[in-house]
Design a protein that fits this description.
The protein contains ten helices and two strands; from the N terminus they run ααααααααββαα. By secondary structure, the protein is mainly alpha-helical. Keywords: Signal.
């Protein structure tokens, strides 16, 4: 079973139950204002319209909009992009707790969908997992041309436990420039190969 299908089925189950450790944590803990912050408000767009300046938080909204319109194949393609970018961003985090942002984002993406829409997404995920199929190969080709993210993953750094500090009895949230310090320098070419080909199984 493909990584993307596992993620989708697990998230759909959590969304259908209406509970998750992620949502419970967010409800009881402090939340940075930039946590999962959207920087581009996208509707249901074609994969060809995605830019490498769009974060997973941006693309998540497009996934939901496509699923709501019954464009499940398109939604799965967009979900794949943000899964690839999400892994890339997780590997850039100094604060490993910040990587949980993708789990929270997955739940947010699917929790408003109806039962029929969730079923449509699960069926599209089934088709997508065929690594020899045109849908998977075509998606991989487009994502490879898109290239690695050009943005700084502040949306994710702001999700971690290091995104705030306690000063006396007050909570102080890190500024965007301070959050930037929680993003590691990486070998972009090597990490892109890992994210796209080794983890998400796109053919070379």
């Amino acid at each position: 079973m493909s990584r993307v299908r596992i993620i989708i089925l697990t998230t759909l189950l959590a969304a259908s139950l209406g509970t998750s450790a992620v949502s419970q944590t967010q409800a009881t803990n402090l939340e940075h204002p930039d946590n999962l912050k959207v920087t581009h408000r996208l509707g249901c767009i074609a994969l060809e319209k995605v830019r490498n300046s769009y974060t997973p938080a941006d693309i998540s909204r497009a996934v939901t909009k496509c699923a709501e319109r019954g464009k499940f194949e398109q939604a799965i393609q967009l979900f794949f992009v943000y899964s690839v970018y999400g892994y890339y961003d997780q590997e850039r985090m100094v604060d490993t707790s910040a990587g949980n942002a993708i789990g929270a984002l997955n739940l947010k993406t699917f929790r408003t969908l109806s039962a029929g829409q969730r079923e449509g997404m699960a069926n599209a995920a089934q088709e997508f997992q065929d690594a020899s199929g045109a849908l998977f190969k075509g998606t991989c080709d487009l994502v490879e041309k898109l290239g690695p993210p050009s943005y700084e993953p502040i949306y994710m750094a702001a999700h971690g436990l290091k995104s705030f500090k306690i000063v006396g009895e007050k909570v102080e949230y890190l500024t965007p420039s301070e959050l930037s310090e929680l993003v590691k320098d990486v070998d972009a070419e090597r990490l892109w190969i890992e994210s796209l080909h080794e983890v998400n199984n796109c053919p070379r």
